[in-house]
Amino acid sequence: MSIEVKEIKRVFRYNGIELPDIPGLTPQAVRDVYSAQYPELISAEVEAGEVAGGVQEYTFRKAVGTKGGTADDDARLAALKAAVAEEAKGRQKDVDAGLAQALARRGMAARARAWDATARDNAHPVPRLRPVSEMLAPVA
Q1: Among 1, 20, 81, 135, which one is least packed by beta carbons within 10 Å?
Q2: How far apart are alpha carbons 97 and 54 in whole angstroms?
């Protein structure tokens, strides 16, 4: 009994399209070559199928999901929605309560008035005197 060696033909499929094989490249390298024509293949997974009849089929599957998403995004989104709902109802959040406490501290009102006066003074700056052409040095 002798061992027979048969060549296996590779077939690449993406989105119902059969893409020609590029000999000498790994399946990931073939995906990278075709990503120039199909940009969504950049993050696609390569799934190798069973060998049947001397043909191995590789399928490119698009990565589905949200960019930069994590497992706790749903909880964070729910917390944000709850905070927005509370604010819409006019309830005071912890941050607002902390700000109110800081503003109630002794001396804070005087500092706030000083900053307000500074802002008002800088709103209308004093016009600067501009030299007339006779005052300028001659250009050599």
Answers
A1: 1
A2: 72
